[in-house]
Amino acid sequence: MDTLVLQDSRTRIGIVPELGGGIAFIEALLPDGRTVPVLRPWTGNAVDGPFAFACNILVPFSNRISGGGFAFDGVFHEIAPNLAGETFPIHGDGFQRAWAIEAASGQTASLVLPGGEIGPFRYEARQGFHLKDGALHVELTVTNTAPRPLPFGAGFHPWFPRLAETTLCFQASQIWLEDARHLPTVQVDVAARPEWDYSAVRPLPRDWINNAFTHWPGIATINQPELGISIEIAASPNLDVAVVYSPGSGADFFCFEPVSHTIDAHNQPGYPGLKILAEGQSLAVQMTLRWLPE
């Protein structure tokens, strides 16, 4: 598999179009000559699966859909599980398909996925990558090509290094608790779970976390003292849910996922956060990753 590399004076990134259009690495080029990872780098082995990448694209939905599918406009739409070992379909199929390069230069690239297809969804998607002053700007656009309206979602799934001194900071007002199947149970105020209140800088929890935070204003900061950098995550207003995932302190990664909707939104009243797209209509979302020296 070929890796498409973009670079400016501060940052170098690698993208693998053939494997889900995923980001293989983002490296910070420090003033002292060191190179450190902004995201956990890909293993380089396709057999390790898509979640060994540094960042996955989430389209035409994020996270899990329960119950074998969802009802919309009086019709039940079946969706089969799309990953071995998963009970429910997860994260759409954009991260599992080969993307094609539309254009590429030193600091910019665009990829296209002309034939996305999972369950009832038929769609075309595009990713645009742009490096400017060391910050990576990514835009994802999905267009419904099915002959019927459907509720679409989207998002990004970056995997960050988890080190002993890693900290996280972001605002949110509520959080969804999950059951043993990783489906949402009840939404509570963040104040009810103070150990997950990241309105001030704090370490990641020692134990499992896999929860959707809502009313996120689109800004988060990760501090990596061992690497000598901090990372700012900025997302478009329509990505107002942040999923935080880490198996625990023994893991070498954690995920902070800006997404458009909560887990299993297709089976919640009103399809919260999902956008109903008629044939030919599109949804566009953006994420920026910027590193700063500490």
Question: Would you write up a description of this structure?
Answer:
With 294 residues, the chain is mainly beta. The chain has a single domain (4-293), classed as Beta-galactosidase, Chain A, domain 5 (Distorted Sandwich), CATH 2.70.98. Helices cover 0% and strands 49% of the residues. The protein contains no helices and 24 strands. The protein has strands at residues 4-7, 11-16, 22-29, 35-37, 55-58, 69-72, 75-78, 100-104, 108-118, 121-132, 135-144, 150-152, 155-161, 167-170, 174-178, 184-189, 202-203, 209-214, 219-224, 229-235, 241-246, 253-259, 275-277, 282-293. The strands form five sheets. It has a nine-stranded antiparallel beta sheet with strand order 8-9-10-11-24-20-19-14-17, with no helix packed on it. The two termini are 35 Å apart. The mean pLDDT is 97.
* Helical run tally: 0
The share of residues in helices is under 10%
Q: How many β-strand runs? A: 24
Q: Detail the poorly predicted runs.
A: none
Number of domains: 1
Q: What is the averaged pLDDT score?
A: 97
Radius of gyration: 18 Å
Give the CATH topology. Answer: Beta-galactosidase, Chain A, domain 5
The quaternary organization reads as single chain
- Envelope shape: globular
- Give the CATH class: Mainly Beta
Structural class: mainly beta
Strands of the widest sheet, in order across it, are 8-9-10-11-24-20-19-14-17
| Sheet with the most strands, sense and barrel status | 9 strands, antiparallel
Order of helices and strands: EEEEEEEEEEEEEEEEEEEEEEEE
CATH architecture grouping: Distorted Sandwich
